[in-house]
Amino acid sequence: MRFGYSIIPKNFTWDAYRVILHSPQTLLQSYFVTIATTVVGSIVGMWVTTSYAYAISRKDYRFRSFLAFFIFFTMLFHGGMVPSYILMVKWLGLKNTALALILPYLISGWFVMLMKGFLQTIPEAVIESAKIDGAGELRIFAQIVLPISKPALATLGLFFALQYWNDWWLTLLYVEHDNLMKLQYLLIRVLKNMEYLNSAEAIEYGLVKPGMLVPSLSARMAMCILAAGPMLLVFPLFQKYFVQGLTVGSVKG
Amino acid sequence: MKKNAGLSMLALPGFLLIIVFNYLPLYGLLLPFKSYRYNLGIWNSPWVGFDNFGFLFNGDVLYRVLRNTILYNMTFIVLGTTLSVVVALLLYELSRRFVRAYQTILFIPYFISWVVAGFAFRSLFDMEYGVINRFLVSLGEEPILWYSDPKYWPYIIVIAAVWKGLGYSSVIYYAALMGIDSEYYDAAKIDGASKIRQAFSISVPMIKPIIIMLVILQIGSICYSDFGLFYNVTLNSSLLYSTTDVIDTFVYRSLIDLGDIGMASAAGFFQSIVGFCLVLVTNTIVKKINPENSLF
What we know:
The complex is a heterodimer.
Chain A: H1 13-21, H2 25-57, H3 64-76, H4 81-91, H5 109-119, H6 124-132, H7 137-148, H8 150-165, H9 169-174, H10 183-197, H11 200-204, H12 217-246
Helix pairs in contact in A: 1-10, 2-3, 2-5, 2-8, 3-5, 6-7, 8-12, 10-12
Chain B: H1 2-23, H2 41-44, H3 51-58, H4 61-93, H5 96-107, H6 114-125, H7 131-138, H8 153-178, H9 182-190, H10 195-220, H11 227-233, H12 241-244, H13 247-257, H14 261-289
């Protein structure tokens, strides 16, 4: 057997077959996990990213340059995969939890810089006048800044949704339970298991009788459509905001 | 003071997340110098000096993995940047009506995960059912065993990476082009400059800062690869490792399949340090040439 296959539990072989043809539970469950992590992750991520970016976009904020450098540095230097793995599994104890599928992607340097570039284009007069009317920072942010940032928020939201929807890496690293498996990872497993069912060994060991129908290429294609489809349907709805929202502006540290 | 407190409250959640997920792991940079025992933790595990690096540098895997990572990334930087700028310039010249249609087509690959993309490539290159092999057979040629012959993969990997990333990066440059004051073009037109001349004398110089910024960031991650690309598109086939194994897939195998934390963390350490030094060097060079364009 090839090298990478060892990470896949052997007892799953038949489940893969069942997923498509017989029992939809695994598929439905992973749809649920994917949708839930996408919704929660995108909303929380947008809030965290935008509020941080807003603070460092304000020229009159005292800690502006420190916080800007604080996030910028993460784009240049990071600990790598192994320390992150130990952090998640050992220090935070997040193995096999839904949080492991959400927390690591909530904030990233690039998204903060994109948002900061956009938020900097908001005229200071708008914020000044709200302040004169006696509004607090939180109120200004929620009631004035967010509503006029819709194009940027739409872009950011799409990026977040995409990131969470397409993620399989976090599942690969941190999740072993079937009931927390994301769609993309399920797809990897299904594809690999079918490979196995099609192999000579499977016939030799009687897992598959000669002439038995293993899901065809078209069945596998159907899985791919299930995994990719929703994102492709969402994209056109957001597209008109895209170029507007992607204007990067000044990204200096 | 009250003003600062309000903004600090807004920044706080992000700040905490950055500390936990970006700065705490830096402590793990000690790992390569330790013989890590799960029960002892990082600090209490015994020091071993550079042993983990020795193991890493002695293996013949290192040469292969390093060469692949750097050559692929250099190709992506040069080819990817050039193509994205060209596509952005073309989009800019198109009438606004069709821009959206082209953007949609360019962006679709970006919205597909590497898992699905890997499968799309599989349907092209499958030994028996793949489109290409069927075509070869229908011409009376021998089918090619794509997934066991490493020599084709440098091309396939580059095509896959460009195909998937082109839409996104070209839209970033397109957005930058949209920000250029149209008076420059009007003036150039009066002087009789051709479209090509305008592109080279106005468009490219105007978006140069963002091109340089993105290139510096890419140079900083020259030791990192898109794991999804190298894992899914190649189906993680060990027969192809000579041309498809990169540092990230190697670290992943060392950690998950072999449980070799020492070697995996030594390789990770190498990526972080080398990447950071490259950013500093590139940035210093850019700063020497033109301080305006440097990243920091």
